[in-house]
Please model this.
Amino acid sequence: MFATPMLHNLPPQTLCLTFHDVIPARTSSSLWFDCSIGELRAEIDWLSRHGAHYITLRQLYSHLTRGTKLPSHPVCITFADNYLGFYTYAYPELRKRHIPCAMFVHTGYVGSPIGRPKMDWTQLRQLDREGLVDVESQTVTHPADLRLLPDARVQKEMVQSKATLQKQLGHPISFIAYPNGKFDRRSEKAAEKAGYLMGFSEVLTPAEWSPNIYAVARYVHTKYRRGARDLGY
Model:
């Protein structure tokens, strides 16, 4: 049994979204889950017109575990994979609009120029210091599927990522997102054992319908209108 269960009597109201890379413009080589800066603006504009109020991970955690009241139409925005595109394109837009968000980081690739470049520790510390972006864990190496790894490897991925982030940022790390949204009960228990307070999936339901605090649901950003419909926008 988890130390901090979900409050199952909460009505569905919170839309959690997860984004990946943010790019200058969509091209034939773009992936389906990429988001151009124009698309990001359009999604935020649409949500804002429909009454969205943007909340932090801490607000969400307090709501789910203690029933703390949230503003109407709460939306929690998260990003995965530590892409430099977030820093270059998304962050200036979010900062201009004063929209909080979270960035889940796989620590083994911080600063990597291979493939799509990743943010480095200087950039992550800046984001963390400025306070609008909550920098959190997404394991060390971003395994394709945590369910396929032995117990010791799963625990190592979670513990070492948390320790590295805490050393680099100088404060506790409390939240984790499972890479590719793939996890199981064993992953949830490993997250709890590693000292995380909340874990995130990519299950397409309102956050309040999550089975427990270590499997909090998020819609992939391309499904934002579906999520809004599910919540009666």
